[in-house]
């Protein structure tokens, strides 16, 4: 199982959480497996949250229900808060953002950098093509050309702490550019992502400090 877990390199936190819950449901020593997973992906707070739920003797179905509820509430709150037509920029591949964009009934023009290394932005772009007409995949080095015309920037997060959020490398650049062009910078993250303090442990991820964030939308 751990070898298969290591191959989950382009999926977002919510997808990985669903994969974990499905694959550990019939394993007796769930805590040991989860400890190994936490070591491999320390930036993903949702794995620590699952571990905490297991420690509290919550069953898998109950954990799935909580996960789905906070996921759905977060998207509902984001659509209510950002209830207008807009030009938007995001980054990387996020199940939360994917569903936010797919189910939003407003006209959105979405710009997605390729998000290298890894190219996760290409996945989000492909997943949105059949749902939104105005979706554009752009080069990472061209974000400054598009961002100044956006109404807001919105990213997902792997962890949310008192000192900021952790997300794919490149997120901080978007936040800095947003600040420079006076564009609102939002983070969408459900309650499973929240912790006290976030730290960088992987070069593929980085902290976006709170002073660069307009608001964190959760549910």
From TrEMBL:
Alphabetical keyword list: Initiation factor, Protein biosynthesis
Keyword Disulfide bond: no
Signal peptide: none
Gene3D superfamilies named among the record's database cross-references: Translation initiation factor eif-2b, domain 2
Pfam hit, one: IF-2B
Family (UniProt): Belongs to the eIF-2B alpha/beta/delta subunits family.
Superkingdom as given in the UniProt entry: Bacteria
UniProt-recorded name of the protein: Translation initiation factor, eIF-2B alpha subunit-related
InterPro entries in alphabetical order: eIF2B_alpha/beta/delta (IPR051501), IF-2B-related (IPR000649), IF_2B-like_C (IPR042529), NagB/RpiA_transferase-like (IPR037171)
GO molecular-function term, one example from the UniProt record: translation initiation factor activity
């Amino acid at each position: 199982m751990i070898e298969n877990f290591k191959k989950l390199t382009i999926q977002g936190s919510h997808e990985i959480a669903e994969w974990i819950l499905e694959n550990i449901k019939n394993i007796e020593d769930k805590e040991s497996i989860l400890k190994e997973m936490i070591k491999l992906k320390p930036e993903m707070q949702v794995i620590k949250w699952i571990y905490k739920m297991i420690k509290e003797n919550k069953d898998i179905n109950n954990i799935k229900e909580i996960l789905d509820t906070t996921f759905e509430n977060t998207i509902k709150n984001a659509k209510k808060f950002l209830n207008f037509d807009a030009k938007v920029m995001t980054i990387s591949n996020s199940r939360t953002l994917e569903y936010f964009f797919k189910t939003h009934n407003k006209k959105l023009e979405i710009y997605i950098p390729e998000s290298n290394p890894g190219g996760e932005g290409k996945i989000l772009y492909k997943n949105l093509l059949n749902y939104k007409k105005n979706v554009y995949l752009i080069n990472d080095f061209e974000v400054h050309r598009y961002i100044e015309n956006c109404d807001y920037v919105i990213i997902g997060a792997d962890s949310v702490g008192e000192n900021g959020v952790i997300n794919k490398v490149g997120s901080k650049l978007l936040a800095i550019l947003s600040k420079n062009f006076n564009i609102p910078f939002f983070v969408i993250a459900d309650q499973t992502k929240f912790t006290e303090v976030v730290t960088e442990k992987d070069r593929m991820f980085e902290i976006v400090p709170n002073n660069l964030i307009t608001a964190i939308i959760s549910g």
